[in-house]
Amino acid sequence: MSPLDVVDVAPGVAAVAVRTPTLPPATHTNAYVLGRRRLTVVDPASPWPEEQEGLLRALQAQGGEVERILLSHHHVDHVGGVEALRAALGGQVPVVAHPVTRDLVADHIRVDGLLDEGDALEVDGRAWQVLHTPGHAPGHLVLHDASAGTQVAGDMVAGVGTILLHPEEGDLGDYLASLARMQRLRPTRLLPSHGGPLDEAAAVLGFYVAHRHQRSEQARRVLERGPATPAALVPEVYGASIPREAWPVAALQLETHLRWLVAQGLARRLDEERFAAT
């Protein structure tokens, strides 16, 4: 099997896109390779052997020694190939993650080291600042390189598709705060897990914040006409912008917006399913 393509995407960073069982329209997850001699591999993501082998060959062709594997968060389209890569590299490469992520993957991945807000990660002479950015996932991490203005952004933004906030583990208030945290560092290039690099980072992050507030306001205005469930809001809020088969996912997304409206005092929960305006 030939190695997968290795693409330089920022100073000291390369990307290898591997096929994963991710949310359409995305089909791949970027495994980022930080460094040139002493490497940190972020999210060796694919659970499929042929993709795992392709990533291994790409790393071998790149040269250097893998010093650690880093998990941005716990979702299967980010961690599906972690133990396969570790085994292929001899079984001793440490895996590092946020403490919450460690707990969420404990039944199938051994996490050896922990990272949290304010930690610094030295990779091959380059300093990366660790940001804890919950909202999409409770243990989500972003890496910030102040010298180059680069952020390895995980699932905080996307180059293809959208970012799902699932009500079981996502939180819109946390997500907005995390986006603001990223904004304050004034990055110039965002490296998302799905799709290509995003330049004009300030504009991208600003759009994500504005878009979430717009969705919340759309939901609130519909509630002013009467109580509704998240599923009932989907055609009113999204209209024809999404296909009908995507409505169940959209309903999950809207529930996180409704919960945020409740927290802001702009809506109230009537029962297990229905929300109303205040």
Task: Provide an overview of this structure.
With 278 residues, the protein is an alpha/beta fold. It folds into 2 domains: 7-199, 4-Layer Sandwich (Metallo-beta-lactamase, Chain A), CATH 3.60.15; 214-277, Winged helix-like DNA-binding domain superfamily/Winged helix DNA-binding domain (Arc Repressor Mutant, subunit A). Helix content is 33%, strand content 24%. It has 8 helices and 15 strands. It has helices at 49-62, 76-79, 82-88, 99-104, 172-184, 201-223, 230-238, 247-263, and strands at 7-10, 13-19, 28-34, 38-42, 65-70, 95-97, 113-114, 120-123, 126-132, 141-145, 150-154, 189-192, 198-199, 267-269, 275-277. The strands form 3 sheets. The protein has a 7-stranded mixed sheet. It has a 6-stranded mixed sheet with strand order 8-9-10-11-12-13. Strand 3 (28-34) and strand 4 (38-42) form a beta hairpin. Helix 5 (172-184) runs antiparallel to helix 6 (201-223) and helix 6 crosses helix 8 (247-263). The protein is elongated and about 60 Å long. The model has no long low-confidence stretch (mean pLDDT 97).
